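Hey,

The postdoc asked me to send both predictions to you directly instead of through the lab channel. I've kept everything plain text so nothing gets mangled by the mail client. Protein one:
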Amino acid sequence: SNNPKVLSFSRTRNGDKVIVVINLSAKNQSTKIKLGLLVGKYRNFSTNKTVGFSGSLTLQPWGVEIYSTK
């Protein structure tokens, strides 16, 4: 993440990918994540909708977003 108040990490196992993005502050935070090989379609765990994850997003205070290819 390009924002020090946002923690992000990814894990890949058996071809399945997960991206986790966490806002570590009490204010909305915008960030851009360098995805490289992680660009693609993901299911958002919060909404259960499939999205094209581009790496740019805004998180609510103390918010967590989890995206998975499975």
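Protein two:
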Amino acid sequence: SLWYFPVEEGKTVDLSLITSPIKDETEEFTYEFAGWFTDPTNVNAGQFTDLTVVTKDLKLYARYNEIAKG
């Protein structure tokens, strides 16, 4: 499933107050939360931090690092 939350223009986000979503592991991989990003699929999209200035309404998407088991 795709985890995201909306952020309104002019608002700030204290990311420390948001629980990091957990992605279910598979038989071959576990997943480590890598942060919030402004695009769900583009690996070059910027990572959102507490210092990011919000200049328009947007959605933040959770991204994960895939870790092989074994």
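Summary for protein two, as requested: The mean pLDDT is 86.

Thanks,
C.
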